[in-house]
Amino acid sequence: MAYAVKELFLTLQGEGVNAGARAVFVRFAGCNLWSGREADRASAICRFCDTDFVGMDGGGGGRFNDASALIAAVEEAWGPGLKDRFVVLTGGEPMLQADDAIVDALHGAGFRIAIESNGTLPVHPGIDWVCISPKAGSTVVQQSGDELKLVWPQAGFDLDILESWDFSHRLIQPLDDPWAADHQRAAIELVLARPQWRLSIQTHKLLGLR
Length: 210
Ligand SMILES: C[S@@+](CC[C@H](N)C(=O)[O-])C[C@H]1O[C@@H](n2cnc3c(N)ncnc32)[C@H](O)[C@@H]1O
Ligand SMILES: Nc1nc2[nH]cc(C(=O)O)c2c(=O)[nH]1
Ligand code: SF4
Ligand SMILES: [Mg+2]
What we know:
Elements: E1 3-12, E2 22-28, H1 38-41, E3 62-64, H2 67-78, E4 86-90, H3 100-108, E5 112-117, E6 129-132, E7 144-152, H4 159-164, E8 166-174, H5 180-193, E9 197-199, H6 203-207
Parallel strand pairs: 2-4, 4-5, 5-6, 6-7, 7-8, 8-9
Antiparallel strand pairs: 1-2, 1-3
Bound molecules: S-adenosylmethionine, the ligand Nc1nc2[nH]cc(C(=O)O)c2c(=O)[nH]1, iron/sulfur cluster and magnesium ion.
GO molecular function: 4 iron, 4 sulfur cluster binding; carbon-nitrogen lyase activity; magnesium ion binding; S-adenosyl-L-methionine binding
Domain Radical SAM core: 18-210
Catalytic activity: 6-carboxy-5,6,7,8-tetrahydropterin + H(+) = 7-carboxy-7-carbaguanine + NH4(+)
């Protein structure tokens, strides 16, 4: 199978429990909750996306004709060293494209694989670190994993129900938009009221990382 990748780059994981870790990011093109076109944003299921995932024209992006071509690009981005290799599959929605061939090839090259997914598709069982970020108005079928990362505020979620899902870590990530300061305060209030949750800050934005 061929894979459509918007961009592929080495950075530090900015969010969640693994924040600060060196990682190659593979941003797959396309999402099932928004077309990515601004004209469609207001009618999309997911309306607050901070990411351009349309096309294959970003740095390191392109069409990769098979898994070995994609993994070669991931290895090249990682650089020298076979230990502690770490890759994050994101997008867009990575579960539209992440398949056995990619998971097997990345594991074969010694990578620990994390994913950032909206949870509307079952996550590949071979993935080592599953981060699910649910979106109001979608049906979340992947209700287990390593971290549940809820962008906040988001109307339409019952936190008692989310707390019953099977995740090792629960994080609240303030919505980044023109009212971010208000959302940060709301997120802090939520964590102060509900100790099962922790705050996730998008540190790459603060640090000027990609
Ligand atoms: C761009 S998404 C790609 C992965 C997948 N489609 C998803 O939504 O989880 C990566 C992460 O950014 C979060 N995110 C997107 N837009 C955001 C925003 N405006 N503020 C804070 N987090 C945001 C998502 O919820 C998700 O956790
Ligand atoms: N540095 C960095 N960390 C991230 N964590 C999740 C990201 C994403 O867009 O999925 C992201 C991203 O785009 N950059
Ligand atoms: S589900 Fe993820 S990639 Fe898709 S529009 Fe929402 S935040 Fe963006
Ligand atoms: Mg991002």
